[in-house]
């Protein structure tokens, strides 16, 4: 069954990766419609053997036969246009943060809570990249050992900020920072992603905490987070400390991660084997290493988790949600 699919934000970093992933996965598209801001409207994009002209997004853009729309154009565009698309019968998969914590809106990672898509009312939210790569391995451990507490420490690539973040790092490396980040990002680490809130946490830290609870549908989880921007071009790395209710055997825990859909275990420290952002670039899996017991806890583990934040963290997860819509016959 082929569908008519729209992409909103088609010329951005994630938008362009949507196209790459859709093509790689042979997503069954009949007609494709590409939308952007007026700034990029008119540009040409090749998909498959055809060339497409990007149209300016307007309130009438969805007055045509479209079944699915993938959005990655910022919260304000999603706030205004996702409901318009949904009102025309389009199922929207939104990569922005705007709708994620809305009770009516499913927040989905296909390897973790695929069934949640069945509750959609027209809009489905794609979680934050740093949340997605964490919950894929944690789901297996939560099911087996019941998570009590999680401590997230992230080391996030500048591609998470889009082209402006990459530019500030690359130009900063040659002594010409653009001033996009509040401090020099080259040769530096900034404990500041998104904006600070009243309680001293950044919105990025609050996203990881709130989104993890929603995805697991478990609001008893104790979670804290520190999210840091690092001078890495692409790929987020995370140190995750987990405390369990139940005891575990380390070998069995590692085996359960190896058997988890979407997870690749890279863990042989004696031979310097552990995941790094460079190794995981352009991949869709979540890579886990440095798996070791936290001896300061009755039952705890430390993990090092790495994934491509533009692919599994955004574009691929969104396309996988669209695939779920097809497999569940929801479009
Ligand atoms: C970042 N997770 O890394 C945020 C949004 N992509 O900047």
From TrEMBL:
A Gene Ontology biological process term: isoleucine biosynthetic process
GO molecular function annotation: aspartate-semialdehyde dehydrogenase activity; NAD binding; NADP binding; protein dimerization activity
Family assignment from sequence similarity: Belongs to the aspartate-semialdehyde dehydrogenase family.
Pathway field: Amino-acid biosynthesis; L-threonine biosynthesis; L-threonine from L-aspartate: step 2/5; Amino-acid biosynthesis; L-methionine biosynthesis via de novo pathway; L-homoserine from L-aspartate: step 2/3; Amino-acid biosynthesis; L-lysine biosynthesis via DAP pathway; (S)-tetrahydrodipicolinate from L-aspartate: step 2/4
Subunit details: Homodimer.
UniProt EC number: 1.2.1.11
Binding site for NADP(+): 11-14, 39-40, 159-160, 177, 309
Species assigned in the record: Asaccharospora irregularis DSM 2635
Keywords: Amino-acid biosynthesis, Diaminopimelate biosynthesis, Lysine biosynthesis, Methionine biosynthesis, NADP, Oxidoreductase, Threonine biosynthesis
Keyword 4Fe-4S: no
Xref: HAMAP family: ASADH
Gene: asd
Physiological role: Catalyzes the NADPH-dependent formation of L-aspartate-semialdehyde (L-ASA) by the reductive dephosphorylation of L-aspartyl-4-phosphate.
Binding site for phosphate: 100
Substrates-to-products reaction catalysed: L-aspartate 4-semialdehyde + phosphate + NADP(+) = 4-phospho-L-aspartate + NADPH + H(+)
NCBIfam families in the record: asd_B, PRK14874.1
Name of this protein: Aspartate-semialdehyde dehydrogenase
CDD domains: ASADH_C_bac_euk_like, VcASADH2_like_N
Segments forming domain Semialdehyde dehydrogenase NAD-binding: 4-120
């Amino acid at each position: 069954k082929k569908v008519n699919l729209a992409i909103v934000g088609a010329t951005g970093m994630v938008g362009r990766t949507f196209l790459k992933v859709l093509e790689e996965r042979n997503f069954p598209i009949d007609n494709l419609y590409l939308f952007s801001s007026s700034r990029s409207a008119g540009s040409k994009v090749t998909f498959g053997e055809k060339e497409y002209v990007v149209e300016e997004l307007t309130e009438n853009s969805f007055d045509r036969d479209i079944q699915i729309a993938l959005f990655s154009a910022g919260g304000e565009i999603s706030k205004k246009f996702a409901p318009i698309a949904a009102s025309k019968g389009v199922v929207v998969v939104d990569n922005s943060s705007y709708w994620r914590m809305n009770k009516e809106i499913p927040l989905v990672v296909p390897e973790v809570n695929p069934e949640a898509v069945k509750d959609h009312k027209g809009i489905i939210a794609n979680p934050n990249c740093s949340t997605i790569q964490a919950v894929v391995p944690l789901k297996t451990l939560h099911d087996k050992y019941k998570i009590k507490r999680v401590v997230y420490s992230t080391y996030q690539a500048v591609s998470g900020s889009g082209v402006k973040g990459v530019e500030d790092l690359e130009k900063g490396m040659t002594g010409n920072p653009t001033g996009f980040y509040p401090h020099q990002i080259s040769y530096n680490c900034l404990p500041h992603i998104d904006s600070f809130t009243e309680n001293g946490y950044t919105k990025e830290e609050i996203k990881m905490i709130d989104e993890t609870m929603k995805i697991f549908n478990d609001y008893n989880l104790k979670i804290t987070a520190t999210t840091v921007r690092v001078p890495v071009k692409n790929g987020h790395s995370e140190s995750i400390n987990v405390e369990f209710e139940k005891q575990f055997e380390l070998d069995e825990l590692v085996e359960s991660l190896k058997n988890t859909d979407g997870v690749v275990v890279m863990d042989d420290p004696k031979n310097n084997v552990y995941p790094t952002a460079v190794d995981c670039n352009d991949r869709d899996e979540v890579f886990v290493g440095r798996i070791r017991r936290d001896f300061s806890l009755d039952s705890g583990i430390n993990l090092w988790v790495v994934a491509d934040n533009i692919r599994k963290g955004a574009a691929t997860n969104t396309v996988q949600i669209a695939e779920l819509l097809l497999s569940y016959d929801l479009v």
